[in-house]
Design brief:
Number of strands of chain B: 0
Structural class of chain B: mainly alpha
CATH topology of chain A: MetI-like fold
Strand content of chain A: under 5%
Largest sheet of chain A: none
Order of helices and strands of chain B: HHHHHHHHHHHHHH
Helix content of chain B: over 70%
Largest sheet of chain B: none
Number of helices of chain B: 14
CATH superfamily of chain A: MetI-like
Distance between the termini of chain B: 11 Å
Oligomer: heterodimer
CATH class of one domain in chain B: Mainly Alpha
Radius of gyration of chain A: 22 Å
Order of helices and strands of chain A: HHHHHHHHHHH
Radius of gyration of chain B: 24 Å
Shape of chain B: globular
CATH topology of one domain in chain B: MetI-like fold
Distance between the termini of chain A: 32 Å
Structural class of chain A: mainly alpha
CATH architecture of one domain in chain B: Orthogonal Bundle
Strand content of chain B: under 5%
Helix content of chain A: over 70%
Chain lengths: 284, 324
Amino acid sequence: MSGSRDIGRDFARRLLRNRLAAAGGLVVVFFFLVAAFPALFTSQNPDRIDVANILRPPSAAHPLGTDDLGRDVLARVVYGARVSMKVGFVAVGIATAIGLVLGLLAGFHGGRVDAVLMRFVDIMLCFPTFFLILAAIAFLSPSIVIIMAVIGLTGWMGVARLVRAETLSLKERDFVAAARAQGAGDARIIFRHILPNALAPILVAATLGVAGAILTESALSFLGIGVQPPTPSWGNILTVGKNYIEFAWWLSLFPGLAILFTVLGYNLLGEGIRDAVDPRLKGR
Amino acid sequence: MLRYIVRRLVWAVPVLVGISLISFLMIHMAPGGPISVGTDLNPKATAETRARLEAYYGLDRPLYVQYGRWISRMARLDFGDSFSPDGRPVAEKIRERIPITLTINVLSMGLIFLVAIPIGIYSAVYKGSLFDRISTVFVFTGFSIPTFWLALLLMILFGVKLGWLPISGIGSLEYHSLSLTGKIADRARHLLLPVLLAGFTGLAGMSRYMRSNMLEVIRQDYIASARAKGLPERTVVFRHAMRNALLPVITILGLSVPDLLGGSVIFETIFAIPGMGQLFYQGVMSRDYPLIMGILTIGAFLTLIGNLLADVGYALADPRIRQG
C-alpha cells in the first residue's frame, strides 16, 4: 500500500511546513513530556510544605517562587500538567466516543433514528454547557474522575453533528455503492469505508476539543469546584494567586501562562491538521 | 415568511418538552432522588424542608403524574423555594438578578459585533498583510487565553497598579447620592472590564468567522463580475461582498447565547456582580437545589429564544432561507 504511505508522508510534510502548526505541535509534545516525566523538570516535591518560606518571589531555589504554604510553584505547575493532560484526553475521549456512535447511527440509518437523535442534540445544545457541568457537580462531589466524566458527557454534541454530516455525504459515494454491490454488510461499510474517510475532521475536532476541555477544567478548579487541593492543578493554583493578587504576582502569572501555552498549542495543532488534510481551507 | 416562523416555532415545541424532560430526569437520576439531594447533602435542610420537598415533587404519585406537575409548574415559572435561609421563591430571586446579566451580555454582543466585523472584513480584503497576521495572532490568543486569568491580570493592571477602574461590584458606595450622569459614569466604569472580558473570546471567534465568510464570498462569480464591470473596489467590498458575508453572522450571534450565559458565572463571581451567574455559583456552592434547577431551565429557555430570534432574523435578511 505505497499509495497510502505517500498520502501520510504528504500530510506530515504539509503539517511541518505550516510553521504555526509545527510550533503548536512542539508545545503539545513539551507539555506531554512534562506530564509524563515530571521528575525531569523539577526535583521538588509539589506537596512539601515549608512554613519558613511562605510566598517567596522567584529565586534560585524556587525558580517560580513559593505559595501560601511555602510549596514550590514550579513543582506544582509541573505536576499540574498531569491533571490538565489527563482531563483533556479522557474528557475528549468520552465525548468523541459518544459523538461517534450517535453520529454514525443518525447518519447511517437516517429516518426516524436520525430525527430523534438530532432533536436530542438540539435539546442538549440549549443548555449552556457550563451551567450543565456546574449543576452536575453540585449533585456529585467534585473530583478529577467526575470532572472528566461531566466535561465528556456534556461535550459530544458537536462531534455527533460532524460525524453525522460526514456519514451522510460518504454513504452516497460510489465506492460505498460498489462495496455494497460486492456484498459488504453494514458493519463492513461503516468500519472499512465510512470511518476511515471521516477520521480527519474527527481528529481536528478532538484536538480542538482537548484545548476546550483544559480551559473548562482550569475554570472549574479556579472556581473551587474542580480539582480539589492539595492535588495541584493550574486552575487551583490561580485561586490561591487571586487571594494574594496584590503582593504575589508569580502565583497568578505562571500557571496562567502554562494554560495559555498548552491551549494555544492544541488550537494551532488542530488548525494545522485541518489545513494539512484539506489544503483548500488553508489560511481561513 | 409567516410560514417559516411557524415552522421554527413548531420545531421549538419538542425541544421545549425535551428541556423539561431532561431537567426532570436530572432530579430523579441524582443519587437518592430529589429528597436525598435536597436534604442529606444540605446541612441547612430541616425536617420541614424535607416535608415541603416531598409535597412539592409529589413523590408518592406515579412518575408521569410527577412529570405533568413539573411541566405545569415550569410553564408558570414556579421553581419552588430556595434552600437558603431566606427561603424565598426561586423565580423571584432569578427575576431580581437577570437584568444585570442580560445587560452585560447584550453589551458584550454589541461590542463583538462592532469590533469583530471590521477586523474580519479588513483581514480578508488584505489577506496576508501585516494587519491580517497580527489579527490572526490575536484570534488564536483570544481562543486560548483563560478569560478568568485575563480578568485577574487586568484587575492587577487597572485596579491595583493604575487604580483607574474599580475591581468589584456594579456601583460605588456613594452611588445613590450621585447625579444621573454621575450614576451612568459610575455604572459604566464598573461594567467596562466585565463587558470587555465577557466579549473577548467571542470577539476572536467572530472576527475569524467573518474573515472566512468574506474570503468565501470574494471568490464568487458575482464579485468577479462586479469588478469586471468597473465598479470601484469600495463598492465591491461593502455593497456586494460584505452584505452577503454578514448574513450567517446573525445565526452565530444567536448561537453565542449559551456561551455568554455560561461565562457570566465566571465574570460575575470574579467581579462580584450580583447577577444570575453569581447566583448560580452561590447555589452550586450551597447545593441550593431548586435554585440550580431553576437557573438551568431558564438558561435553556433563553438559549432557545436566542436561537429562534437568530432564525427569524436570518430569514428576514435572506429570502433564500424563508423559501427553502
